[in-house]
């Protein structure tokens, strides 16, 4: 099994770096006003990797998830286990747009979005 600091974590860091670089490029094209990676503010940092302020003054908080250890995919159960869904709710309730960036297939993400819209109580989301 891979350990913290191993190849899997480094691959995840590289994936996150690629996403940050994409948003820096968007800032050069005036699509976003600023990009902040790895905030030092504990409230803002809760469960995310990148803050982006759009030209429309909308705050986007971005969590980049490349893979789950040896698995090439994430499940809703794993996202709940690692508090990704809980943290997403925190940021959404505080007025930000939460974006999960992942190489997951579109159909899987679409299914999750449809399921999430049907549930009001976070604990019942499966």
Verbal overview:
With 126 residues, the chain is α+β, with helices and mostly antiparallel strands. The chain has a single domain (7-124), classed as Trna Endonuclease, Chain: A, domain 1. The protein is built from five helices and four strands, in the order H-E-H-E-E-H-H-E-H. Strands 1-2-3-4 form a four-stranded mixed beta sheet, sandwiched between helices. The longest helix has 22 residues, at 7-28. The radius of gyration is 15 Å and the shape is globular. The two termini are 26 Å apart. Residues 1-8 have low confidence and may be disordered.
Instruction: Please summarize the sheet with the most strands.
Output: 4 strands, mixed
Tally of helical segments = 5
Oligomer class: single chain
Supply Rg: 15 Å
H/E series, N to C? Answer: HEHEEHHEH
- Could you name the CATH class? Alpha Beta
Number of strands: 4
Q: Helix proportion of residues, in percent?
A: 40-55%
Integer count of domains: 1
Structural category is: alpha+beta
Nearest-integer average pLDDT: 75
Assign the CATH architecture: 3-Layer(aba) Sandwich
**Termini gap:** 26 Å
**What is the strand arrangement across the widest sheet?**
1-2-3-4
In CATH, the topology is named Trna Endonuclease, Chain: A, domain 1
Give the strand content.
15-25%
Record keyword descriptors for this entry.
single chain, 126 residues, alpha+beta, Trna Endonuclease, Chain: A, domain 1, four-stranded mixed β-sheet, 5 helices, 4 strands, 44% helix, disordered N terminus
């Amino acid at each position: 099994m891979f350990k913290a600091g191993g190849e899997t974590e480094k691959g995840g860091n590289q994936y996150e770096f690629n996403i940050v670089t994409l948003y820096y490029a968007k800032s050069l094209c005036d699509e976003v006003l600023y990009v902040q990676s790895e905030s030092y503010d504990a409230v803002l940092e809760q469960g995310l990797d990148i803050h982006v302020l759009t030209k429309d003054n909308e705050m986007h908080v971005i969590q980049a998830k490349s893979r789950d250890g040896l698995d090439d995919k994430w499940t809703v159960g794993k996202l709940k286990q690692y508090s990704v869904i809980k943290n997403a709710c925190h940021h959404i309730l505080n007025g930000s747009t939460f974006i999960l960036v992942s190489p997951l297939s579109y159909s899987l993400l679409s299914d999750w979005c449809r399921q999430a819209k049907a549930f009001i109580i976070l604990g019942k989301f499966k």
